[in-house]
Automatic annotation (TrEMBL):
Protein name as it appears in the record: Uncharacterized protein
Family that this chain belongs to: Belongs to the peroxisomal membrane protein PXMP2/4 family.
InterPro entries: Mpv17_PMP22
Biased composition range(s): Polar residues: 231-243, 250-260
Organism: Mycoemilia scoparia
Membrane association type: Multi-pass membrane protein
Pfam families per record: Mpv17_PMP22
Transmembrane segments: none
Keyword annotations from UniProtKB, A to Z: Membrane, Transmembrane, Transmembrane helix
Amino acid sequence: MSTIFGLWAKYAQSRPFITIALTEAFISLIGDGIAQNISIYEIDKHFSPSTSGDNDNNNDKSQEPTTIKELNSEQKSYDISRAARFSLYAVLDAPLDVKWHHFLDKHLPFPSASSAQSIKPPISFQSRIMKHMPRLKVVGKRVAVDQLFYEPFAYTLFFVTMTHMEGGNWEDSKAKLRSTFWPTYLTGLMVWPVVQAVNFAFVPLYLRVPFASTVGIFWDTFLSWMNSRTPPQPDSKSSSISDKNGAKDISSTNSPFVAT
Protein backbone atom coordinates (compact mmCIF):
# COMPACT_ATOMS: atom_id res chain seq x y z
CA MET A 1 0.00 0.00 0.00
CA SER A 2 2.82 2.41 0.85
CA THR A 3 4.42 1.63 -2.52
CA ILE A 4 1.19 2.48 -4.34
CA PHE A 5 0.83 5.73 -2.42
CA GLY A 6 4.48 6.59 -3.03
CA LEU A 7 3.99 6.08 -6.76
CA TRP A 8 0.82 8.16 -6.71
CA ALA A 9 2.55 10.94 -4.74
CA LYS A 10 5.40 10.97 -7.25
CA TYR A 11 3.04 11.50 -10.17
CA ALA A 12 0.86 13.93 -8.21
CA GLN A 13 3.89 16.21 -7.88
CA SER A 14 5.40 15.68 -11.33
CA ARG A 15 2.13 15.51 -13.31
CA PRO A 16 -0.48 17.02 -10.99
CA PHE A 17 -3.26 17.74 -13.48
CA ILE A 18 -3.69 14.27 -14.97
CA THR A 19 -3.02 12.48 -11.66
CA ILE A 20 -5.46 14.59 -9.65
CA ALA A 21 -8.05 14.43 -12.45
CA LEU A 22 -8.04 10.62 -12.47
CA THR A 23 -8.13 10.54 -8.67
CA GLU A 24 -11.09 12.93 -8.62
CA ALA A 25 -12.92 10.80 -11.18
CA PHE A 26 -12.56 7.72 -8.99
CA ILE A 27 -13.67 9.54 -5.82
CA SER A 28 -16.66 11.11 -7.58
CA LEU A 29 -17.83 7.68 -8.75
CA ILE A 30 -17.93 6.55 -5.12
CA GLY A 31 -19.94 9.60 -4.07
CA ASP A 32 -22.41 9.29 -6.94
CA GLY A 33 -22.78 5.57 -6.31
CA ILE A 34 -23.78 6.25 -2.71
CA ALA A 35 -26.24 8.94 -3.86
CA GLN A 36 -27.84 6.62 -6.41
CA ASN A 37 -28.26 3.87 -3.84
CA ILE A 38 -29.93 6.33 -1.48
CA SER A 39 -32.29 7.44 -4.27
CA ILE A 40 -33.14 3.83 -5.15
CA TYR A 41 -33.77 3.02 -1.49
CA GLU A 42 -36.05 6.04 -1.01
CA ILE A 43 -38.03 5.25 -4.18
CA ASP A 44 -38.40 1.60 -3.22
CA LYS A 45 -39.56 2.71 0.23
CA HIS A 46 -42.09 5.12 -1.29
CA PHE A 47 -43.49 2.48 -3.64
CA SER A 48 -43.35 -0.41 -1.18
CA PRO A 49 -46.54 -2.52 -0.85
CA SER A 50 -47.25 -1.15 2.64
CA THR A 51 -46.92 2.45 1.47
CA SER A 52 -48.97 1.79 -1.64
CA GLY A 53 -51.66 0.19 0.49
CA ASP A 54 -51.91 3.30 2.66
CA ASN A 55 -52.16 5.50 -0.40
CA ASP A 56 -54.96 3.36 -1.83
CA ASN A 57 -57.23 4.55 0.99
CA ASN A 58 -57.17 8.05 -0.41
CA ASN A 59 -56.35 7.63 -4.09
CA ASP A 60 -56.93 4.89 -6.60
CA LYS A 61 -53.59 3.35 -7.56
CA SER A 62 -54.65 3.47 -11.20
CA GLN A 63 -54.69 7.27 -10.96
CA GLU A 64 -50.91 7.31 -10.44
CA PRO A 65 -49.29 9.12 -13.40
CA THR A 66 -47.92 6.71 -15.97
CA THR A 67 -44.75 8.77 -16.29
CA ILE A 68 -44.03 8.40 -12.58
CA LYS A 69 -44.46 4.64 -12.83
CA GLU A 70 -42.12 4.44 -15.77
CA LEU A 71 -39.51 6.68 -14.15
CA ASN A 72 -39.78 4.75 -10.92
CA SER A 73 -38.94 1.51 -12.70
CA GLU A 74 -35.97 3.16 -14.40
CA GLN A 75 -34.59 4.43 -11.09
CA LYS A 76 -34.43 0.95 -9.60
CA SER A 77 -31.19 0.32 -11.46
CA TYR A 78 -27.79 2.02 -11.43
CA ASP A 79 -27.68 4.95 -13.88
CA ILE A 80 -24.37 4.56 -15.69
CA SER A 81 -24.82 7.71 -17.77
CA ARG A 82 -25.40 9.80 -14.65
CA ALA A 83 -22.25 8.37 -13.04
CA ALA A 84 -20.30 9.05 -16.24
CA ARG A 85 -21.43 12.69 -16.31
CA PHE A 86 -20.50 13.19 -12.68
CA SER A 87 -17.10 11.58 -13.19
CA LEU A 88 -16.43 13.57 -16.37
CA TYR A 89 -17.19 16.79 -14.57
CA ALA A 90 -14.73 15.83 -11.82
CA VAL A 91 -12.02 15.28 -14.44
CA LEU A 92 -12.69 18.65 -16.08
CA ASP A 93 -12.87 20.48 -12.75
CA ALA A 94 -9.71 19.00 -11.20
CA PRO A 95 -7.21 21.31 -12.98
CA LEU A 96 -9.21 24.32 -11.80
CA ASP A 97 -9.05 23.10 -8.20
CA VAL A 98 -5.30 22.51 -8.47
CA LYS A 99 -4.78 26.01 -9.89
CA TRP A 100 -6.87 27.49 -7.09
CA HIS A 101 -4.74 25.95 -4.36
CA HIS A 102 -1.57 27.14 -6.10
CA PHE A 103 -3.13 30.62 -6.31
CA LEU A 104 -3.81 30.66 -2.57
CA ASP A 105 -0.29 29.46 -1.80
CA LYS A 106 1.20 32.20 -3.96
CA HIS A 107 -0.93 35.15 -2.85
CA LEU A 108 -1.51 34.15 0.78
CA PRO A 109 1.83 32.55 1.72
CA PHE A 110 2.74 31.28 5.14
CA PRO A 111 5.49 33.09 7.09
CA SER A 112 8.94 31.95 6.05
CA ALA A 113 10.84 29.45 8.15
CA SER A 114 13.53 32.03 8.91
CA SER A 115 11.04 34.48 10.40
CA ALA A 116 9.50 31.71 12.49
CA GLN A 117 12.90 30.71 13.83
CA SER A 118 13.63 34.29 14.85
CA ILE A 119 10.83 34.10 17.43
CA LYS A 120 12.03 33.13 20.90
CA PRO A 121 11.06 29.65 22.11
CA PRO A 122 7.66 29.77 23.84
CA ILE A 123 7.59 29.43 27.62
CA SER A 124 3.82 29.53 28.18
CA PHE A 125 0.62 28.48 26.46
CA GLN A 126 -0.11 32.07 25.48
CA SER A 127 3.33 32.51 23.95
CA ARG A 128 2.87 29.26 22.02
CA ILE A 129 -0.37 30.60 20.56
CA MET A 130 1.34 33.89 19.70
CA LYS A 131 4.13 31.99 17.96
CA HIS A 132 1.65 30.32 15.61
CA MET A 133 -0.65 33.34 15.26
CA PRO A 134 0.82 34.52 11.91
CA ARG A 135 0.24 31.08 10.42
CA LEU A 136 -3.27 30.87 11.89
CA LYS A 137 -4.11 34.25 10.38
CA VAL A 138 -3.06 33.02 6.94
CA VAL A 139 -5.18 29.89 7.36
CA GLY A 140 -8.16 32.07 8.33
CA LYS A 141 -7.67 34.30 5.30
CA ARG A 142 -7.44 31.32 2.96
CA VAL A 143 -10.60 29.78 4.38
CA ALA A 144 -12.47 33.09 4.09
CA VAL A 145 -11.40 33.68 0.48
CA ASP A 146 -12.15 30.07 -0.42
CA GLN A 147 -15.66 30.09 1.07
CA LEU A 148 -16.67 33.59 -0.02
CA PHE A 149 -15.38 33.52 -3.59
CA TYR A 150 -14.36 30.12 -4.88
CA GLU A 151 -17.14 27.96 -3.43
CA PRO A 152 -20.04 30.02 -4.87
CA PHE A 153 -18.31 29.99 -8.25
CA ALA A 154 -17.66 26.23 -8.01
CA TYR A 155 -21.28 25.40 -7.13
CA THR A 156 -22.59 27.58 -9.95
CA LEU A 157 -20.22 25.99 -12.43
CA PHE A 158 -21.16 22.50 -11.24
CA PHE A 159 -24.93 22.87 -11.51
CA VAL A 160 -24.84 24.75 -14.82
CA THR A 161 -22.42 22.27 -16.40
CA MET A 162 -24.31 19.22 -15.15
CA THR A 163 -27.62 20.63 -16.39
CA HIS A 164 -26.16 21.11 -19.88
CA MET A 165 -24.61 17.63 -19.80
CA GLU A 166 -28.11 16.30 -19.10
CA GLY A 167 -29.45 18.02 -22.21
CA GLY A 168 -30.82 21.14 -20.56
CA ASN A 169 -30.56 24.78 -21.62
CA TRP A 170 -29.91 28.10 -19.88
CA GLU A 171 -33.48 28.30 -18.59
CA ASP A 172 -33.06 24.87 -17.03
CA SER A 173 -29.73 25.98 -15.52
CA LYS A 174 -31.32 29.04 -13.93
CA ALA A 175 -34.16 26.92 -12.53
CA LYS A 176 -31.63 24.43 -11.14
CA LEU A 177 -29.63 27.22 -9.47
CA ARG A 178 -32.75 28.75 -7.94
CA SER A 179 -33.69 25.45 -6.34
CA THR A 180 -30.26 24.13 -5.33
CA PHE A 181 -27.64 26.88 -4.96
CA TRP A 182 -28.51 28.31 -1.54
CA PRO A 183 -29.32 24.97 0.16
CA THR A 184 -26.01 23.61 -1.15
CA TYR A 185 -23.95 26.66 -0.22
CA LEU A 186 -25.43 27.03 3.27
CA THR A 187 -24.98 23.32 3.97
CA GLY A 188 -21.38 23.60 2.76
CA LEU A 189 -20.69 26.38 5.27
CA MET A 190 -21.35 23.88 8.04
CA VAL A 191 -18.74 21.48 6.64
CA TRP A 192 -16.03 23.03 4.52
CA PRO A 193 -14.55 25.83 6.65
CA VAL A 194 -13.35 23.25 9.19
CA VAL A 195 -12.16 20.79 6.53
CA GLN A 196 -10.30 23.48 4.61
CA ALA A 197 -8.74 24.93 7.75
CA VAL A 198 -7.19 21.53 8.46
CA ASN A 199 -6.30 21.19 4.78
CA PHE A 200 -4.53 24.55 4.54
CA ALA A 201 -2.78 24.21 7.89
CA PHE A 202 -1.40 20.68 7.77
CA VAL A 203 -1.68 19.09 4.30
CA PRO A 204 1.06 19.47 1.65
CA LEU A 205 0.05 21.39 -1.46
CA TYR A 206 0.01 18.39 -3.82
CA LEU A 207 -2.30 16.48 -1.45
CA ARG A 208 -4.84 19.22 -0.76
CA VAL A 209 -7.27 18.52 -3.61
CA PRO A 210 -7.39 14.74 -3.02
CA PHE A 211 -7.57 15.27 0.75
CA ALA A 212 -10.60 17.52 0.39
CA SER A 213 -12.18 15.10 -2.07
CA THR A 214 -11.56 12.08 0.14
CA VAL A 215 -13.08 13.83 3.13
CA GLY A 216 -15.79 15.03 0.77
CA ILE A 217 -16.96 11.64 -0.53
CA PHE A 218 -20.17 12.25 1.39
CA TRP A 219 -20.21 15.79 0.01
CA ASP A 220 -20.01 14.35 -3.51
CA THR A 221 -22.96 12.20 -2.50
CA PHE A 222 -24.82 15.34 -1.41
CA LEU A 223 -23.94 17.19 -4.64
CA SER A 224 -25.02 14.27 -6.79
CA TRP A 225 -28.29 14.02 -4.90
CA MET A 226 -28.90 17.79 -5.11
CA ASN A 227 -28.20 17.76 -8.84
CA SER A 228 -30.66 14.89 -9.35
CA ARG A 229 -33.54 16.86 -7.85
CA THR A 230 -36.05 18.27 -10.33
CA PRO A 231 -35.88 22.08 -10.34
CA PRO A 232 -38.97 24.29 -10.64
CA GLN A 233 -39.90 24.49 -14.31
CA PRO A 234 -39.60 27.78 -16.23
CA ASP A 235 -42.90 29.61 -16.79
CA SER A 236 -42.79 29.44 -20.58
CA LYS A 237 -42.23 25.76 -21.26
CA SER A 238 -41.44 22.61 -19.35
CA SER A 239 -37.72 22.06 -19.30
CA SER A 240 -36.07 19.53 -21.53
CA ILE A 241 -34.70 17.61 -18.57
CA SER A 242 -37.84 17.47 -16.43
CA ASP A 243 -38.87 14.04 -17.67
CA LYS A 244 -35.38 12.66 -17.01
CA ASN A 245 -35.32 13.74 -13.39
CA GLY A 246 -39.01 13.74 -12.50
CA ALA A 247 -39.01 10.62 -10.35
CA LYS A 248 -36.14 11.87 -8.26
CA ASP A 249 -38.42 14.38 -6.52
CA ILE A 250 -39.90 11.39 -4.74
CA SER A 251 -36.65 10.75 -2.90
CA SER A 252 -36.07 14.43 -2.09
CA THR A 253 -38.95 14.57 0.37
CA ASN A 254 -37.36 12.16 2.83
CA SER A 255 -33.68 12.46 1.97
CA PRO A 256 -31.29 12.67 4.94
CA PHE A 257 -29.28 15.30 3.08
CA VAL A 258 -31.95 18.02 3.02
CA ALA A 259 -30.64 21.16 4.73
CA THR A 260 -32.81 22.40 7.56
